[in-house]
From TrEMBL:
Record has Nucleotide-binding as a keyword: no
Lineage of the species this protein comes from: Bacteria, Bacillati, Actinomycetota, Actinomycetes, Pseudonocardiales
Keyword check for Transmembrane helix: no
Species assigned in the record: Amycolatopsis arida
GO BP annotations listed: nucleoside phosphate metabolic process; ribose phosphate metabolic process
Record InterPro entries: NUDIX_hydrolase-like_dom_sf, NUDIX_hydrolase_CS, NUDIX_hydrolase_dom
Domain Nudix hydrolase: 28-161
Cellular component per GO, a single term: cytosol
Name of the protein this chain belongs to: ADP-ribose pyrophosphatase YjhB, NUDIX family
Keywords: Hydrolase
Pfam hit, one: NUDIX
Length: 174
């Protein structure tokens, strides 16, 4: 129905287990790689920016579309440097993979964790304009409650990371 580099709209013929059939619209987005960069002060590198589709200001993690032939971790590191002026240092840890809205949208998302970054200059990606900030991880629950973490690309990795740290440090869940 519609197809370009960023988005593809498809129409599927779906048959339910009871035999009923219907047409189903599916949006296919490109593969996404995200960098979660945490420093020694327990702060996460984020971009405070405006998003037109939701008419909302908030924080996002750094990342973008995986280029053809590029490894997702390489994409995440490249996008972090372009968007923030900070380059992740060392080998990344694959943190989590997820699909943010599987009922209607495919958007395979890979998140990589770095525990160090070096400042290499000003951001070079002029399309990703915002304020670069090191935000204390302790603020993640508050920012989530205030809807200041924009989208699943920020919420899922940050909440997963904070929760898994609690488990790693002997925390109890449930």
């Amino acid at each position: 129905m519609y197809d370009n580099r960023w988005v593809k709209l498809g129409l599927a013929d779906v048959q339910a287990p009871n035999g009923e059939r219907w047409e189903y619209h599916v949006v296919h987005l490109a593969r996404i790689a995200i960098a979660l960069i945490v420093n020694e002060r327990d702060e996460v590198l984020m971009l405070w920016r405006y998003r037109f589709p939701t008419d909302q200001w908030g924080y996002e993690l750094l990342g973008g579309l995986v280029e053809d032939g590029e490894e997702p971790a390489v994409t995440a590191a490249r996008e972090a440097a372009e968007e923030s002026g900070w380059r992740p240092v060392g080998e990344p840890e694959h943190l989590i993979s997820f699909e943010p809205l599987p009922g209607q949208v495919t958007a395979p998302t890979e998140v990589y964790l770095w525990r160090r970054a070096e400042h290499v200059g000003e951001p070079t990606d002029t399309e990703e304009v915002g304020r670069v900030e090191w935000v204390p991880l302790a603020r993640v629950p508050e920012l989530a409650a205030r809807q200041q973490l924009l989208g699943a690309g920020a919420l899922v990795p940050l909440l997963y990371y904070v929760a898994s740290r609690g488990q790693d440090q002997g925390g109890q869940s449930g």
